[in-house]
Write a structure and sequence with these properties.
Length: about 230
Amino acid sequence: MCLTVLSPSGDSVGHMYLRGFGHGISFGVEPSDGGVLLWVESDADPRTGYGRAIARVPFRDGTVLDSASAGLRHHRPLPGARRMHPTLDLTNRRVLVSHWVGRRHAYAVYRTEDFLAQRYEPLHNIADTALRKGETFQGCALHDEHIYQLTGNPYTDEAGENPPSAGGNTFVSTIDVSSGRTVARRRVTAAPGLRFREPEGIAVRPGSTPELCIALSVKTRDRRKLTVYSCGS
């Protein structure tokens, strides 16, 4: 997994390789006095490529870190769970862990301090009530009382199941973190003319007016590019 740091204008200003950590569907970025700490899935299952644990690692530009490195702590808050992906609510100091148990997708929410101390007593343990049959999970975010969940696929051709003329099947669902109830679901209609247009990543940019940010992947001849759209959360 390669983590790339981008400037607001889209220029690459740093990168780090994480080997054996996982797929990287969602992750957290925690500012610290010494720089930036990354919350990522870790201990990838060799059969699937998805993480079986959560790690918190410092970002070090230009370096390579192995999941099996000595001294790296792998948090395993949910024994038996698979495909674990973390993200952070920096405002309220909470950790959200997306995970699967059997065929069921779920979320667990922890206080950051408790999680780091390996006190894995969740504030909330929530079955995903928003994910519909056949949908592809593409990321999640936690802010205040809501989980924001991104789903969707890249465009197919016009004869396929997700043609550009239909506007794509990208959706954001809002889940109440206390009750687990899905309280809203909206199709993302931004940039319908993008080539490929696969939804890949969602986050909340905190501030006096928080913004919900959604990334759409664009396939070009030599690489993929990313376009990010924001709206009021």
